Amino acid sequence: xxxxxxxxxxxxxxxxxxxxxxxxxxxxxxxxxxxxxxxxxxxxxxxxxxxxxxxxxxxxxxxxxxxxxxxxxxxxxxxxxxxxxxxxxxxxxxxxxxxxxxxxxxxxxxxxxxxxxxxxxxxxxxxxxxxxxxxxxxxxxxxxxxxxxxxxxxxxxxxxxxxxxxxxxxxxxxxxxxxxxxxxxxxxxxxxxxxxxxxxxxxxxxxxxxxxxxxxxxxxxxxxxxxxxxxxxxxxxxxxxxxxxxxxxxxxxxxxxxxxxxxxxxxxxxxxxxxxxxxxxxxxxxxxxxxxxxxxxxxxxxxxxxxxxxxxxxxxxxxxxxxxxxxxxxxxxxxxxxxxxxxxxxxxxxxxxxxxxxxxxxxx
Amino acid sequence: xxxxxxxxxxxxxxxxxxxxxxxxxxxxxxxxxxxxxxxxxxxxxxxxxxxxxxxxxxxxxxxxxxxxxxxxxxxxxxxxxxxxxxxxxxxxxxxxxxxxxxxxxxxxxxxxxxxxxxxxxxxxxxxxxxxxxxxxxxxxxxxxxxxxxxxxxxxxxxxxxxxxxxxxxxxxxxxxxxxxxxxxxxxxxxxxxxxxxxxxxxxxxxxxxxxxxxxxxxxxxxxxxxxxxxxxxxxxxxxxxxxxxxxxxxxxxxxxxxxxxxxxxxxxxxxxxxxxxxxxxxxxxxxxxxxxxxxxxxxxxxxxxxxxxxxxxxxx
Lengths: 364, 316
Ligand SMILES: Nc1ncnc2c1ncn2[C@@H]1O[C@H](COP(=O)(O)OP(=O)(O)O)[C@@H](O)[C@H]1O
Ligand SMILES: [Mg+2]
Fold this sequence. Notes:
The complex is a heterodimer. In chain A, 31% of the residues lie in helices and 22% in strands. Chain A has 11 helices and 13 strands. In chain A, the strands form 2 sheets. A 9-stranded mixed β-sheet of chain A has the order 6-7-8-3-9-10-12-11-13, sandwiched between helices. Chain A has a 4-stranded antiparallel β-sheet with strand order 2-1-4-5, with helices on one face. The longest helix of chain A is centred in the middle third of the chain and has 18 residues. Chain B is built from 11 helices and no strands. Chain B is globular and about 85 Å long. By secondary structure, chain B is an all-alpha fold. The site of magnesium ion has 4 residues of chain A, from helix 1. The site of magnesium ion (MG) has 4 residues of chain A, from helix 1.
């Protein structure tokens, strides 16, 4: 693979000190973000998506956060090692963020236009007038009607969808190299959600920004992502291109997520849900953290953490099912249908027949 | 906004009327008769009756009240029983010192407390925060008279740094510096509570504001800590703090009574105590109404301040 990664996260592990003990929220996460791509991070709530990405911009509470190990490499610098002043120059300028809650993410006592102009003034060393000009352009770009009038409005005069557009304008203000969107549409209703996703897709094409898109909704992933990382209990359990994850998933947890995804297909009656709940990260279980909820779990899953197996150059999964000695199992019907559909669409390529696992790293 | 203010002022009228009736009734329900203090013990019932008539106390209560009200509306607040001086000029001469005392107290309190509260919040959980929180706890708990007498004992009696009371040197001219010198102890006593209370409140709201998502947004923009504090933190923390100003003002009216008495401050507070002791009903009515007006205006001021600081609040 040529080295076009703008960001590389290596073996990142983060814990929080709490009254009950140390919560191991992120347990050795590796991923890279390539130039111009959208990487989706999916997983149930509490799997460590927000924590891993907040760490990139160092937005985790200083008081109780422990960065146990790892590196976050951006333009050759390890963001975990630079000073707060240097980090300020990165935040909002090189790496910008959009959050889940547009209703509370804007300062209620500041005009929205000023809130958009603020990072431009902070990072680009331009005059207030120039920053305002740029802010007005951004408001137009993200589809806020009548920017001149809206500039002076306060957040409470905007709907949730409009506020999220303002957040996007703020995030894009300095033309960042990386945009991290943490569940940007989760709090919005379906039609507004679709509009915001359209907007982000449009902007992505126009601006050539690399995006990390966090969501627990695979439906959203399908619309946005080039590549997908599936997170479970503080680890990435499977990563691959969007096609690989949707049509040739390898990890039983990914199977579960896909099976529980609503589709437009007729005849689908009741939706599957993954049984049980994620493990308590105060005391992560031995072996595969998903074993207790996994219908395909084998003996080894309960006492040894799986290696990360390579499926293709772009596709890896952390499950013992990929071990050459593992029994051949059939994924849930829903997932089998996906595979078949994909193979019929791209027949002849044949690259999705399961290949014997080749362990590329081992821990645990 | 203008319409709103006028509306508020108009609704204040019935409130003030109710307060005046209440005050009038309570004074007349209280045991004792003002005439007791103005006739010699061996006065004949006829002489007592004559005094009562002279003071207008022989009339039925409603008549007395209506008479008081119609005169008050024309600016005549009655006379002081003992001196036969009109109430109004006495009242006016006492307003200045009280405004000086209260004004100095509020300015000093907020100038100290707001930065302390912010500091405490930003140093949340450190020894600085613990020290300030502990100090504030003492400050809200300590009674005025205790602190006042303690300070007089140490700084006036023992160290002779500050006068024990009054507003200026007896016989001396009341220069600005002399007034400041006399102000130090009473303002310290009176401020103790407001500094402590406001510090605690400012700390709490500042901590809350720093947990808000818009502070996270400001941080994610790459703004410097000072910019986040001044542009995003303080302004939002001030909104709930205005409520405290609204309760501080009326409380100050009460607090000044005790402090003025301790420090012989020639203001309304001492006048109030004198008027109570001597059953100077017209004077008490006047002071009560003045306090009521101050409290109502303070409330209005607070609401206007909300509207100025918080764009979400609009009056129509
Ligand atoms: N500040 C914190 N203190 C303690 N625990 C935290 C903190 N932030 C997150 N966590 C815990 O870390 C885990 C991962 O959280 P998060 O990354 O927010 O999940 P999600 O995948 O839903 O974004 C959760 O168990 C959460 O409770
Ligand atoms: Mg999250």
